[in-house]
Amino acid sequence: MAQLMKSVKNMNPRDHKSTVAAGYDEIGEIYGNQATRSRTAQRTKYESVLLDSLDERARALDLGCGSGIPTTRRLARKLQVIGVDISEMQVKRARANVPDAEFICSDMATLDFPSATFDGISAFYSIIHLPRDEQAALINAIAKWLRPGGTFVGCLGVRDIEADCDETWMGTPMFWSTFDADTNRRIVNESGLVTISALEETTYLRGEEASLHGESETFLWIVAKKLDQL
């Protein structure tokens, strides 16, 4: 394991991202189906937080949209949504699953939208797949892309892990990278967003969920606003 972690840390970030893209190309359909049955409490709660903060047909960005199920699909019932995912196959699936939304295949760290493009931005279980030295820049970009009064809802890590790689996650290699919770709170505050809540929420898992994610998992769930004067 030590040798594996050393090799993972020495990988080029492009290799990490290739691992994520290839992994979801392979298992994305299965993952999407399981997402409708797993992590449902937090996912549903924070989808509702975003939806309740936005007017009908407001513009939203879903970072790491996957196959579009379930989050992008739910958001698109009310909002004008652009979904972004690094996996070509996931984007293909999303276009079929959520025809009312627009989808872009891209590394989210390289996106370039004009300032004040979106009323809301979501990032569920996605930013943690970026090398962590790119995460603050993405949060800064999110702050720029939001319109005054806009809302960001997403989850970040709670542990200081530069590189976490599972060679057999759902049968395919996968990569994650996280800061501790306090560092992530600071990153959000320094981006210019105003934090409404930043809660560490632990989910205790059973059955199929536990086999995928362990007996429990904890994420830092962020709800933040862009003030009118920013």
In CATH, the architecture is 3-Layer(aba) Sandwich
How many strand elements?
9
First-to-last CA distance: 46 Å
Instruction: List SSEs in N-to-C order.
Output: HHHEHEHEEHEEEHEHE
CATH domain fold name: Rossmann fold
Structural description of this entry:
With 230 residues, this protein is of the alpha/beta class. It has helices at 2-9, 13-35, 40-53, 71-76, 88-97, 135-145, 181-190, 207-213; strands spanning 59-63, 80-85, 102-105, 118-123, 146-156, 161-169, 172-178, 194-204, 216-225.
Write the SSE topology.
Blueprint: H1 2-9, H2 13-35, H3 40-53, E1 59-63, H4 71-76, E2 80-85, H5 88-97, E3 102-105, E4 118-123, H6 135-145, E5 146-156, E6 161-169, E7 172-178, H7 181-190, E8 194-204, H8 207-213, E9 216-225
Parallel strand pairs: 1-2, 1-4, 2-3, 4-5
Antiparallel strand pairs: 5-9, 6-7, 8-9
Helix pairs in contact: 2-5
State the main characteristics.
9 strands; 39% helix; Rossmann fold; 230 residues; 8 helices; disordered N terminus; alpha/beta; 30% strand; 7-stranded mixed β-sheet
